[in-house]
Amino acid sequence: MKKACILATCAVTALTLAGCGMATTIAPNYQSTNPDLMRIGGEAPGQKEPEIINMGSYCLQVTNRWKTDGKTPDGQTIWTMDSLRKVIPCR
């Protein structure tokens, strides 16, 4: 009797996990509403020179760099932008 209860509990748990796994699968979406942050395919986007922003009592140097961040299932490169910020003295 005890073995039958344990077996039934394991079966119900396995079915529940399998059902939940199938119901919540999300199809990947390789599109961006902002192409300034992510691009799909093609060559590496051009790199800009670092921008210096005067914040009043200090300046901020902003450098944007594109990097590869994997590939889509059909083999296209995913390009994402890193934004690096550094405090520098104003000139």
Query: Roughly how much helix do the residues carry, as a percent range?
Result: 10-25%
Secondary-structure element string = HEEEE
Strand proportion: 35-45%
Count the beta strands.
4
Span from first to last CA? 83 Å
Tell me, rounded to a whole number, the average pLDDT: 82
Detailed description of the structure:
The chain has one helix and four strands, in the order αββββ. The radius of gyration is 25 Å and the shape is elongated. It has one domain (2-27, 36-88). A hairpin with a 4-residue loop joins strand 2 (51-54) and strand 3. The longest helix has 22 residues, at 2-23. It has a four-stranded antiparallel beta sheet, with no helix packed on it. It is α+β, with helices and mostly antiparallel strands and 91 residues long.
Give the structure's gist in a few sentences.
With 91 residues, the protein is of the alpha+beta class. The protein has one helix at residues 2-23; strands at residues 38-40, 51-54, 59-71, 77-88.
